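tokens incoming
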């Protein structure tokens, strides 16, 4: 008998349109997971969990390898993972809830609610007198909007993922949401961000950034609740995502999946979020722990147009709005969605059946996390898949071949 969330998830899937009409062939999935098991034996990755639901029914759920490379405990389907940027779609839905309720608008300047972010400067690199670039500050042409935050076109950036003079300013200001040792809250994050320049003019460039962390701070300000409380009351609790949170309680810490202490390829340390304490900074872009079943419930809610098991989180039209391209063809120097994909309100969105270098269907949407986790929904195939792993250096390797295995399994 399935326990807890597994039984609930199967019940939810059974209510989806077309339930039970189409199965999958598990052979390609088994072959993929056997290769992962070989990689476990070779010391490439500790372990992983794959969950696939199609046409209203979970068709495949399997865990391989070890939950913790320093222990003999096997990976389990209910192991807990740091999902990092897979926090972003959940916080984006939180913002959509507030927009639906009329408490803020997508076109609103963020400075209406966070006045520190009004009249920011943009950092432009210019040649200096000694031949080295210097940072010139110019006025922003307009303030950042809520829309800009949700589609990563705010002009904000990360202090990592490349180098620039603006990124250096982020590091000097210790703007590192989602990092292990941050000792300030979202209000202080906003204050620090207000003191550093933007990397681009708002609305001009897609750049992966701390935009969703600022969106989390905005949710706190508009709702009057801390981000963890708002998410629990409005999304996680109603969806019965009982294992998703910013901290792992003591009685669940034995279920947390761990990465290798050193990256197998670079031999560099791979510090991940501490499971033992609630972080002071509730990072809207990177802070949650979750399980494959829990995250599948969130994905199924979106797949069903905003509701699950009769509980509505957002409207069908808000989900449609969220999962349409909002970039208007704008791209940046490091466009993370990749070829064939636009970006909606918190998720990458496939623009055509072709163009992309990974299999899929027009309209499929997805996002992943720093430590290797990934999920997507394909509305054409009525498919939801969740991939859980704690191997930061293996994201780009596993995701395409895992997607190929999933699509190879379809009738």
């Amino acid at each position: 008998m399935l326990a807890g969330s597994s039984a609930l998830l199967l019940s939810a899937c059974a209510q989806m349109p077309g339930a039970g009409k189409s199965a999958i062939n598990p052979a390609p999935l088994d072959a993929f997971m056997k290769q992962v098991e070989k990689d476990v034996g070779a010391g490439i990755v500790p372990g992983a969990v794959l969950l696939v639901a199609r046409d209203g029914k979970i068709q495949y759920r399997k865990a391989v390898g070890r939950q913790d490379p320093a222990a003999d405990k096997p990976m389990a389907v209910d192991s807990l993972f740091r999902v990092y940027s897979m926090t972003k779609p959940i916080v984006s839905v939180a913002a959509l809830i507030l927009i639906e309720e009329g408490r803020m608008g997508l076109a609103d300047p963020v400075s209406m609610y966070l006045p520190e972010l009004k009249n920011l400067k943009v950092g432009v690199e210019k040649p200096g007198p000694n031949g080295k670039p210097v940072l010139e500050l110019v006025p922003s042409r307009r303030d950042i909007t809520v829309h800009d935050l949700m589609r990563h076109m705010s002009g904000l950036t990360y202090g990592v993922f490349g180098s620039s003079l603006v990124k250096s300013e982020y590091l000097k200001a210790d703007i590192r949401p989602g990092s292990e040792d941050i000792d300030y809250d979202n209000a202080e994050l906003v204050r620090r961000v207000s003191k550093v320049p933007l990397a681009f003019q708002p609305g001009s460039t897609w750049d992966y950034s701390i935009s969703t962390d600022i969106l989390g701070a905005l949710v706190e300000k508009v709702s009057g609740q801390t981000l963890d409380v708002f998410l629990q009351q409005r999304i996680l609790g109603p969806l019965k995502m009982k294992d998703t949170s910013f901290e792992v309680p003591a009685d669940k810490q034995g279920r947390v999946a761990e990465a290798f202490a050193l990256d197998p390829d670079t031999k560099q340390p791979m510090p991940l979020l501490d499971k033992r304490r609630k972080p002071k900074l509730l990072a809207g872009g990177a802070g949650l722990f979750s399980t494959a079943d829990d995250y599948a419930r969130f994905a199924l809610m979106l797949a069903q147009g905003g509701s699950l098991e009769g509980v509505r989180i957002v409207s069908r039209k808000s989900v449609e709005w969220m999962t349409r391209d909002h970039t208007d063809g704008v791209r940046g120097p490091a466009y993370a969605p990749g070829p064939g994909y636009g970006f909606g309100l918190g998720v990458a969105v496939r623009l055509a059946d072709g163009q992309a270098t990974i299999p899929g269907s027009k309209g499929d949407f997805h996002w992943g996390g720093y430590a290797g986790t990934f999920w997507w929904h394909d509305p054409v195939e009525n498919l939801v898949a969740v991939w859980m792993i704690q191997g930061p250096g293996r994201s780009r390797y596993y995701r395409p071949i895992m997607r190929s295995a999933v699509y190879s399994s379809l009738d």
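note: Residues 1-8, 10-21 have pLDDT under 50 and may be disordered.
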